[in-house]
Amino acid sequence: APAQARSSTPPSIATLGGISDSIDKQKSSKKVLKRRNTKDGLTEEAPRAKRRKPAGADKRLVAPIPLDSCGRPLFPIVLPGCKVHSLGEIVTDRAGFHCQESLYPVGYCSSRIYASVLNANHACIYTCTILDAGTGPRFEIVAEDAPERPFVGSSPDECYVALLRAVNRTCGAEVIVPAARGADFFALPHPTIQNLVQSCPGARKCPNYRWVRFEVSRSATDETERLDSDPYLSYAAFRQLCLQPRLAAIAAASEPSLPGGVTIKQEPMDSV
């Protein structure tokens, strides 16, 4: 009989967790008794040395997501602060499409709300995609209100830093220090997304990628609270922690003052 074709879609993360737990139980059921000689010539069971866990062996908890009847994720995958619209496809024949910390599937697409490069006081939807540039991936961040000005780079950090610099130029000052947070902006390291991407066909053929063990659990930590205070990922946090203090400082500097630090507030003139 012909071999059954493999599915091209990533398996259910719940199924993956079950397989992993089953393997762990089989390994733990095999006990090896070591004996040693005593002074009286008798033998006794020697205490077994505790085996050290290899680096990265601890499981990371991941919250369950809606799946269809075949165990495939329903898109868009809604995460705190962003949405993932496609996981893309793993590229196995070119080393540039993965590194130790991440896989870069071609066709991956996510979106996030952040400060507009036209007016930082306004919010804008940014679409993040990974494209095939030949020897390696090309990362793009496209603003909904300025699609003709995409931010492009050979890494997530390169195009994300370009975005932050554009926001600073719009503000007329450096209101936020450019930082290497591009992967987070794309949502690639998010446990839910990393678990799904490394479950895609071809992920095992990426030799440099460091595999991460995940376990689906309803007790997984909600990252909403942490995100709300991160000005690099949240537009609300950017306005509160970066933009508003800068605007207040500019307003205070523009008001004339008398000796002793007394400020004169400028009132609008009445029309004649």
TrEMBL record:
Region Disordered, annotated ranges: 1-58
Gene3D superfamilies per the UniProt record, alphabetical: 3.30.160.360
Compositionally biased region (Basic residues): 28-37
Major subcellular location class: nucleus
Pfam family membership, one: FYRC
GO terms, biological process: regulation of cell cycle
Protein name per UniProt: Putative transforming growth factor beta regulator
